[in-house]
Amino acid sequence: MHTVKEEDPSNIFTSIATLHESSSLEDIVEFQGILVGIVDGGYFLTDGQHVISVYGGSPDFELGDEVYVKGAYAVYNTLYQISSPSEETLISTGNEDPLTPVVKSVSEVLNLDSSDPLIHGMPYIVTGNLEVRGDYDNLYLVQGDDALLISYYSIPEALTVLEGFVGKEVTIEVFYYTDHGTNGPMVAFQGTVDDVEVNEFSDKEALEADIASLDLPEVTNTDVVLPVTGPNGSTFSNWTSSNTAVIDSDGTFVAKAAETVTVTFTATATKGAESEDVSYDVVVPVNSTVAEALAMDDNELLQVTGVIYDISYYGFFIHEGGNYLFIFSQDLTEEVAVGDEITLLGSMGTYSGLRQVNPHTHTVLSSDNALPTAVETTVGAVENDVVARGTIATITGTVSIEGSYDNAFITGPAGGKVQIYYRTNADAVKEFDGQTITLTVITYQNGTVLYQGTVDDIAVYDGTWTDAEKAQAAVNAISFDADLTQVEMDLTLPAENTLVGATFTWASNNTAVVDVDGTVNRVAGQDTVVTLTVTATVGTETVTRDIAVTVLDANDAEPSTIAEALLLDNGTSALVEGVVTGFDSYGTFIQDPDGTAIYVYDYKGDLVVGDLVILRGDLGSYNGVRQLSNASLIELVSSDNAIFVKTDVTPTELATDPDSYQGQRLTMDLVVNQLDDGYGMVFFDGITDVFIKFSKDNYAPNFADNFAVGDTITVTFNVYGTHYGNVRLDAVTFPVESIHNNSAIDDTVELTGIVTTVFDGGYFLSDGVNSIGIYGSSLDSVAVGDEIHVVGSYASYYTLYQISGLTTEEVISTGNTVVLTPETLTVSELVALDATKTVHGQEFTVTGTIELRGDYNNVYIVDGNDALEVYYKSPADSITALEAQVGNNVTVTVTYYTNKGGGTVLVVFQGIADDITVN
Question: What pLDDT score was predicted for residue 113?
Fold first, then answer.
């Protein structure tokens, strides 16, 4: 008997704006509109005002068709769309396009707010030089320094039309497609030759455009076509080769050299009275082995030959001489077959730890060649690269399904864990959830493997691990937090693996540099390679593994400031010192003492705010944001360091020049512009067309419950940088004063802060200036210095306005610096203090005589006729310490708790005997 799942209920929309406002991902939606745009794999419909994409729909609809569609609300980068339609109906044909295109410059299109779903699909008229750029010969509209990608998903016939105008300045109508996470904003073109307006150039402009359009190959092993004329009438004369023994001056390929050479072609470009000398480099490589290719630097041009043994979603693997190399090219996966011997010209690269070739040209030499066989190994060996990437590996481990996307993982018996890449047959593996299985995979990107088999190719493991297998798995599962290719500090060498009962002993071939206890002594004047040998013992069985360690030159031990590092080129390895100022979902912000800062991508470790650290990483940029990546902690120098927070930057200054403040910690007053843009972002006023924004899901899920459009809020944050045309903020905190000023009793509020005072049932959280009481804690323990995120209800206890009824209480970090400075007051002055909301939680140093008063012998600090009651929920040890001083005049530091009226002020004392000064 088969059960048919009932289709999810749908929502019928006539307005695209309402559709976006009312829909969540995977909702079933219905819409009917006029087809105004076509791309490869889908089309765009309009309601007369806005446009929505339909992906995976009928390829037979035409412009002007009125179409009804029903499908799932989905997103591709920033393009929200109706995906995988279950119903499509042609209502009518030949309708007029109701939309009027808007004239915009390339820069203006690039700066459109792509977080607004309503700009997608809208038509624009744009002017620019058509250029071919990148490894994939994509078309760009170029204006000065700005370049706009014509989406490769534009219909092929339209792209072919544009290719005929490369090198010319054109005016064309395009429509906004998406803001791609890697390629930036993309537009689509769907016109014909008649829809391309070619603009007239001056001779100088024509010459510059024709030089820019020169399209000689970067790498070749055949003839080179040397152009005589350019698209705009420029002539190229006197072509000359720098190495006529390899390629002659007419472009004829003569012969390869004994090694890879660069041939430089020079010529004179002329247009009218304008003339300019030009040169172009072409690399002619020798054929490299796969092993030689793997040793090359990123972006190095090469020729390599190997046999294809696996084809996957993004490309294929080749092997030669027992080595493996990935070829990144979806386009070629349909043209080649397993067993083909293939020669490729291209450039080397690395993505997520996987070395790969980005191919320019290819030649299939033969078919049905021998394939590599699977290697028996362990999960730990795969995760830790004990076996090479691309290895066909048979592994045994336990299946688990984890995360919001139900990804399949395999965990080895001694540790080690890999994910089955979701674009392979992960579903087959998921059928064995909770079971231990044996399967054959191909090692892929960091932490992932490819599984190309079926359910029938998976065997449930029904044996027991031998001691030898346990020992092998244990040595393979050993991993290090440090990058072993650039070691700069002592290593932690594990002594055992308790999962399989293995013990480890260590040996070193150079104990003077790396001792068997992990102590590292750097040698001045050179990097030193040391081989560590670990022996795992289980029972009477032993297995060894050699681990190569490169200890860096001691002369390179001096870290740079962040300001100095920012002057270095991308791709440079940098040793940087800075203070941790905050975190976002993916990484860490560090700063110099003057606030100069950088973002460290994909590294948090166990760091806390205020740590002074030395990190090594690779300098780079992502969407214009400078960052360190592949970072490792070299040294935790100290903790509890001061954070430099800029308070004199205005929203206008930040929005005008966000790049100047990348990574820096700022506090400023911001005016709420939008509570939720539909993508979980809160917008604040900046300047025209540039807003300041942060993710409320990450930092303030209940923001809309606490604030309204037009509210002015004091916010502290790190500047990430420009993000989809606006300024993105991370590590966002809202000061206590903002909560007090903008909240009513029972409002849901939230705060992330540092614990300054602890009492029975709660604590005070500080934003660095003020504190607020948190009551009803469910945490097992709370300590001063803990960073905690809470969500709860705004409430009051006498004059103490606090957060209670906690729904979220999460410790973010521990051991942070407490930044409050106590103020010295007399008991009389403290009793008479105006009990404003922000006084509560502040610390005061007072002097008085300790007395026990009342029916419950509560502790009081008395000075003449004035007395402070020490809150009986102060820590028990603290109360005991004060009771031991009854009758003595003492000086102590207390925290203002609440004013009960009638002259009774409650304070918290959380010290010990050593914190009491007896006068």
Answer: 86
